[in-house]
Amino acid sequence: MSAPITKHAARQHGSRRISEPAAVRWLLTAIALAFLALFLALPLAAVFSQAFEKGWETYLAALKEPDTLAAVKLTLLTAAVAVPLNLVFGVAASWAIAKFSFTGKNLLITLIDLPFSVSPVISGLIYVLIFGRQGWLGPWLEAHDIKIVFAVPGIILATVFVTFPFIARELIPLMESQGKDEEEAAMVLGASGLQTFFRVTLPNIKWGIIYGVILCNARAMGEFGAVSVVSGHIRGMTNTVPLQVEILYNEYNYTAAFAVASLLAFLALVTLVVKTIAEWQVQRQLQD
Amino acid sequence: MKLFAKHNNVLPGFGPTMGYTLLYLSLVVLIPLSALVFKTAGLSWSGFLEAVAAPRVLASYRITFGAALAAAGINAVFGVLVAWVLVRYPFPGKRLVDALVDLPFALPTAVAGITLATVYSANGWVGRYLEPRGIKVAFTPLGIIIAMTFIGLPFVVRTVQPVIEELDAEIEEAAACLGASRWQTFCRVLFPLLTPSVLTGFALAFARGVGEYGSIIFIAGNMPMVSEITPLIIITKLEQYDYQGATAVATVMLLASFVLLLVINLLQKWSRRYAE
Question: In this complex, do A117 and B207 lie within 8 Å of one another by their Cβ atoms?
Answer without folding.
Answer: yes
